[in-house]
Amino acid sequence: MTSTAMRPAVTAGPRTGYLTAAMLDVVLLVLINVSPGWRGVPFLTGAAEDVVVWVDAGLALGVVVNLVHALFLRRRLVLLGDVLTTTAALVSLTVARAVFPFRFDDAQIPWTVITRTTLTIVVVAVSIALLVQLVKLLHALVAPEVDA
Hints:
The chain is mainly alpha-helical. The protein contains 4 helices and no strands.
């Protein structure tokens, strides 16, 4: 005997995840720009304004990308969104590394060296991730679409 019961949509989980991610990006935008705001962070200098612009752009892009994914769950579109948001993250990190808007008063811990080293490692890791995502996107564009 076969069941004629309808299966729940398998896209409900990912769609919920994309909506949650969009909401988190909005929360981060509010925290950075409204309250408490990036100016309230004691180790950031005024030069952080040059970085915040790029972080805001990346978060806004993340909101748009995640909302599009929630509405249109297509593999190629998701891969394109991954490339766009990772590129935005890489730009923000690169600007943060170049501007270095940090001031650390604790002389006993080498926070400047730790932060510069961490930023460099993260820039390299995100660059590798972007290359992987570009290859995946290119493969998806040239490979025939397969329905799962």
